[in-house]
Amino acid sequence: MSNVLVIESSARQQGSISRQLTEEFLVQWREAHPDDSITIRDLAKEPVPHLDETLLGGWMKPADRQSAAEKAALERSNRLTEELLAADVLVLAAPMYNFAIPSTLKSWLDHVLRAGVTFKYTETGPQGLLSGKRAYVLTARGGIYAGSALDHQEPYLRQALAFIGIHDVTFIHAEGLNMGAEFSEKGLAQAKSRLAEVA
């Protein structure tokens, strides 16, 4: 049995293609892995605050010097990090907003990329501590960006995940969604076909 952690980051609850992809992925995953435990964290329903001085204080100050707000910020970061540590499989649902990931997803990453917890510094550079995990990234894009210089989603997420030791990462892009019916239908069909392969 595996633990699956799903991170939803679309600002929309209705009409979201990335959420549609997540639903389809989970239907197929449950059929193939009925005993797996699935946790869904929705960053639109429960936004994670941006990295700020309060969270930094929670990370860096001794417990007896932390304010109540800093303790609360640390507890929130700990909860998010513990969810990630417990997961065997990570699923990130990420629509493309202005060529990159949603700011809510960036905030989540800022809470879980933690020195001494998910990575450590060594004499030869940073080393990820989450080896052995798999990740699937489901994206929804209005245009066609895969492999182009305008794609700031996949390179960034690959780097961020590799930084904490997650190197087994599969991207499934639904592209061309705002380029007319033909492109939209083709892009969604291709993404669903890839979902069926990996789930």
From TrEMBL:
Its cofactor is FMN. Coiled coil: none annotated. InterPro entries: Flavodoxin_fold, Flavoprotein-like_sf, FMN-dep_NADH:Q_OxRdtase_AzoR1, NADH:quinone_OxRdtase_FMN_depd. It catalyses: N,N-dimethyl-1,4-phenylenediamine + anthranilate + 2 NAD(+) = 2-(4-dimethylaminophenyl)diazenylbenzoate + 2 NADH + 2 H(+); 2 a quinone + NADH + H(+) = 2 a 1,4-benzosemiquinone + NAD(+). Quinone reductase that provides resistance to thiol-specific stress caused by electrophilic quinones. FMN binds at S10, S16, I17, S18, M96, Y97, N98, F99. This is FMN dependent NADH:quinone oxidoreductase. Its EC number is 1.6.5.-, 1.7.1.17. GO terms for molecular function: electron transfer activity; FMN binding; oxidoreductase activity, acting on NAD(P)H as acceptor; oxidoreductase activity, acting on NAD(P)H, quinone or similar compound as acceptor. Residues 3-197 form the Flavodoxin-like fold domain. Pfam families: Flavodoxin_2. Homodimer. Binds 1 FMN per subunit.
